Amino acid sequence: MLLHTQIHVFLAVFALASCFLPNIFPLVLFKSFAVHIALGLYFVSFIYLLIKRLRIFLMYFFVATLIFFNISSFIFRNNHSDSSVVIDFTLAHFNVFYLNKNYEQMTNIILESEADMVSLQEVDKKWAQALENALPKKYPHYQIRVDGKNSGGGMAIFSKIPFVQLDSLRFDDLPYFFGKVKIKDQILSFFVAHTYSPSNFVYYVRRNRQFSAIRDFLSKKESPLVFIGDLNAVGWDNEVLQTEKRLFLQDSRRGFEATFPAFAQNFGIPIDYIFHSPQIICLDFKTIKTNSDHLGILGKYYFKNP
Hints:
This protein has 8 helices and 12 strands.
């Protein structure tokens, strides 16, 4: 009986540590699944309630509630809708998945998004050719950056709006885009990044270095700004929280809206983003079903009156 109790205490403490300790690897991997952990603990707690093991029920229920409360602000967000406001621009983002060979279906999904600007990631040479064959008629302004060192590291940006500026940057062996477009006499800056997946300690450290470099770079840039990409971090990850705080950015999400893995729909985790500065209001945000391993995302925006 004592060993049985110790196992329950260990599992409860491990769950709390995974969700509340921000910078310890590999606990950060478990933290990405905090919602799933909380729901699992609620389920287990009610099983123990049914068999009248009240102490174990209360322990798991309390831990699950602490975890859920800690991330509740990322699940329940304010609704941005305002039907009286005219949309100034729309942005879409897709991780096409370099192993995905169904180019035509994916490019049709991109075209059907009707976004003014589209960010695309995991673009290899074959994807670059497919995108260049399908998109320029609707999106005449574009740049594709295929990464020779990393098959999943390439990216592209396609726009209906001419670029005022478009710079292709590089940090830690991955490309980035920084540019500007002019919309209704307003200059909008945009930044596109794809960070490493923290699948092991080396990539975890590299991902965090990328976030630090991004914060340093964007802290010197003028707003209004949108920051787009597959960041391989959930909204309650410490790196995302620091980025939002330092750069005064807001997530476009209206709720949890998971994007990976695509087959899991809203039972996955949210790791693809369109952040925006306070001068911009997000009117609508949604995920888009794709044939990739990520769902796409689409946001509709307008500029706040000065």
